[in-house]
Write a structure and sequence with these properties.
two-stranded antiparallel ribbon, elongated, binds zinc ion
């Protein structure tokens, strides 16, 4: 028997095959059906891309700061000797 799952966006009970796989999710599927994800992607594309850019920029800063800290600690250790 095919399992079904309710889409959190459209509220329809659909076969699990109508959901994309997502290993991070407990049941291994997205909570949103493929059709809804497609729709949302189409609608949100410009905004999502801007958000992604912001996210990447923020993380780049964080990563740079982290490696700076690491270098500083390493240098401090070396001069301690
Ligand atoms: Zn849906």
């Amino acid at each position: 028997m095919e399992q079904s799952k309710r889409c959190s966006t459209c509220g329809h009970d659909l076969p699990v095959t109508a959901f994309y796989r997502d290993r991070r999710n407990r049941d291994g599927r997205y909570s949103e059906c493929k059709a809804c994800i497609r729709e949302r992607r189409k609608r949100d594309r410009p905004r999502a891309r801007a958000a992604e850019r912001r996210y990447t920029a923020r993380n780049l800063d964080k990563r740079r700061a982290a490696s700076r800290d690491c270098m500083r600690r390493k240098r401090a250790k070396e001069t301690d000797k």
